[in-house]
Design a protein that fits this description.
Blueprint (H helix, E strand, L loop, with lengths): L1 H23 L4 H31 L1
Helix pairs in contact: 1-2
């Protein structure tokens, strides 16, 4: 569980970095939006996966 949580935190930090980088550079907006949506979907997937795993462990 610690590994999954660490991955979620790492992805969140990278997402924040990309958002900050977009605000301070001339990187194309469309690429940044795609990048942000991809990171958000991966973070959401990992959180759901972690919650399901945690729920299964508590039911046992």
């Amino acid at each position: 569980m610690k590994k999954e949580l660490l991955q979620i935190i790492m992805l969140s930090v990278l997402l924040i970095y990309f958002i900050y980088h977009e605000m301070t550079s001339d990187f194309p907006v469309s690429y940044t939006i795609i990048l942000i949506l991809t990171y958000l979907s991966v973070i959401t997937y990992r959180i759901i996966k972690l919650l399901r795993k945690n729920k299964e462990q508590t039911e046992l």
